């Protein structure tokens, strides 16, 4: 309840600041529309916004699920195979020297203007944080537990599944939390480079037609979506690690 | 990559558990940890190892558990008569090492589950009841006191059913009454196995040791213990005399 009050107060302050900027800053409406105008557009264009938001939402969710799964599997693979650690890990680190954004045109070229290229963008952008956070945690299983498992004569993959992976879940969760914030960025960039649907596409379109109020409306929808995603993922992560004290 | 396979309880040779043997000097890097010493734990007997903190008791015990990678032993150790100890040892380490995300029943059956054998939940529950935790079976370790956690670790060790059992200060966190009860339980459950029990408590050694060894910087001394069965009564003259004698010895040897 307290948190809700907090957020409401914050939003209110933001709106007041925004309105006073428009009123006293003497800014023309085509640069910064007043909040009332944006609210109007939000309501009138709700169907249009929803249509594009659903596309972006789908891209983000698919990218998140795929990126987190592939990241998790890669982390376990790196942990289990010394060979992979020697050859694949440096490659992963090196790959981070290429900004994912720079790949966007290429992905669009290869995967087309549809959903796939945006999912790939989101996936690529979250793959590394998930993999590296989970892998680091997997490599740091407390020595005492590993020794106990060895004396008990546990098999490698059972120890992995029953001890190392559960013990590393807090690491996976912190990777996932980052991913939830990054995934929308990936999808939007992908849409900017080439798309016919989605909030990013809508923002470009609105900008081109000087409909700044629509652009702001899309931005607000995107922010709200990202916020909700963050809260949901955070709750999920808390659940995942609630027994790790 | 794997940890190797494990022996089934039938190959583990409970009928004739191996004795333990070590002679030599142990170092970690260039640092001398203990030695030169000669150590022997008799097969099927309960051996208590006493000695000041930092003298190398845990290091020695862990060698028998196969956890001596960091240690360079200039000498020999292992099962007496060359018996291999791999997969016939149960270890209760100095820390409880419980998994915080598992409840007590799952913690106690961890060994079976990581070996891929069917966990015996009925036995786990019986053991948890015998260590006085039947009301907590579905709780997690974080909801327990230090002494309760130590009893879960004891139950997990007793679950393992191995011919050689290594106990590193297993009752250190318990009150006098619970401690005596747990000593009774362990002595009963582990009868006939080769037990190496590291303890700081002369009274405990006097109750449980068929054989009592005192380890100091200068070596290991075998202190004659009465040939009576264990656990000895905590307040019998025999136990109290031995306890006093051990205490005196620990005070004098530096
Ligand atoms: N990894 C290590 N590297 C270097 N020295 C170590 C290492 N582990 C233990 N030691 C040293 O070895 C000595 C013996 O340690 P050990 O844990 O065997 O003692 P202990 O007799 O079990 O003591 P306590 O009764 O306090 O448990 C100590 O002086 C300790 O500092
Ligand atoms: Mg110790």
TrEMBL record, chain A:
One BP annotation, GO: transmembrane transport
Keyword list, A-Z: Cell membrane, Membrane, Transmembrane, Transmembrane helix, Transport
Lipid bilayer topology: Multi-pass membrane protein
Parts forming coiled coils: none
Subcellular locations according to the entry: Cell membrane
Record field: transmembrane: 49-79, 91-113, 119-138, 159-176, 214-233
Domain ABC transmembrane type-1: 49-233
InterPro entries per record: MetI-like, MetI-like_sf
Family label: Belongs to the binding-protein-dependent transport system permease family.
Protein name: Putative hydroxymethylpyrimidine transport system permease protein
From TrEMBL, chain B:
Protein name listed in UniProt: Putative hydroxymethylpyrimidine transport system ATP-binding protein
Similarity-based family: Belongs to the ABC transporter superfamily.
The keyword Translocase is annotated on this UniProt entry: no
Origin superkingdom: Bacteria
Matches recorded under Gene3D superfamilies: P-loop containing nucleotide triphosphate hydrolases
Pfam family, one: ABC_tran
GO molecular function terms noted in the UniProt entry: ATP binding; ATP hydrolysis activity
ABC transporter domain span: 15-242
Keywords: ATP-binding, Nucleotide-binding, Transport
């Amino acid at each position: 309840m307290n948190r809700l009050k907090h957020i409401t107060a914050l939003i209110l302050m933001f709106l007041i600041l925004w309105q006073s900027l428009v009123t006293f800053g003497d800014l023309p409406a085509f640069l910064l529309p007043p909040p009332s105008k944006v609210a109007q557009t939000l309501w009138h264009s709700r169907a249009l916004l929803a249509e594009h938001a659903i596309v972006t939402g789908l891209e983000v969710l698919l990218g998140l699920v795929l990126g987190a799964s592939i990241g998790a599997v890669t982390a376990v693979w790196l942990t289990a195979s010394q060979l992979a650690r020697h050859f694949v890990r440096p490659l992963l680190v090196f790959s981070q020297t290429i900004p994912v954004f720079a790949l966007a045109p290429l992905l669009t070229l290869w995967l087309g203007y549809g959903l796939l290229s945006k999912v790939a963008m989101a996936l690529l952008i979250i793959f590394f944080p998930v993999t590296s956070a989970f892998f680091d945690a997997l490599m740091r299983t407390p020595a005492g537990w590993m020794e106990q498992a060895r004396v008990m004569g546990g098999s490698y993959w059972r120890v992995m599944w029953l001890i190392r992976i559960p013990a590393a879940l807090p690491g996976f969760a912190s990777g996932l939390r980052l991913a939830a914030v990054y995934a929308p960025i990936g999808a939007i960039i992908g849409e900017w480079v080439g798309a016919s649907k989605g909030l990013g596409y809508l923002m470009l379109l609105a900008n081109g037609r000087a409909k700044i109020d629509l652009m702001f409306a899309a931005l607000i929808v995107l922010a709200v979506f990202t916020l909700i995603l963050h809260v949901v993922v955070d709750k999920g992560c808390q659940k995942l690690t609630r027994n790790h004290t | 990559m794997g940890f190797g396979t494990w022996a089934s309880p039938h190959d583990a040779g409970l009928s004739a558990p191996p004795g333990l043997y070590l002679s030599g000097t142990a170092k970690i890097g260039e640092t001398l940890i203990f030695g030169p010493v000669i150590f022997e734990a008799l097969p099927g007997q309960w051996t208590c190892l006493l000695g000041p903190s930092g003298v190398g008791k845990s290091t020695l015990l862990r060698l028998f558990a196969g956890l001596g990678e960091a240690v360079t032993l200039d000498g020999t150790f292992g099962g007496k008569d060359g018996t291999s100890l791999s997969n016939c040892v149960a270890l209760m380490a100095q820390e409880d090492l419980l998994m915080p995300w598992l409840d007590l029943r799952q913690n106690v059956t961890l060994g079976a589950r990581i070996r891929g054998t069917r966990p015996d939940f009925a036995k786990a529950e019986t053991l948890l009841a015998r260590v006085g935790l039947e009301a907590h079976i579905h709780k997690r370790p974080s909801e327990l006191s230090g002494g309760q956690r130590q009893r879960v670790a004891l139950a997990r060790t007793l679950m393992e059913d191995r011919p050689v059992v290594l106990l590193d200060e297993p009752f250190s966190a318990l009150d006098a009454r619970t401690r005596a009860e747990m000593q009774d339980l362990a002595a009963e459950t582990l009868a006939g196995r080769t037990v190496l029990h590291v303890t700081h408590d002369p009274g405990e050694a006097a109750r449980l040791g068929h054989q009592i060894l005192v380890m100091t910087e200068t070596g290991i001394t075998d202190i004659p213990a009465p040939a009576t069965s264990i656990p000895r009564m905590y307040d019998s003259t025999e136990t109290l005399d031995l306890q006093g004698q051990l205490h005196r010895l620990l005070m004098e040897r530096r």
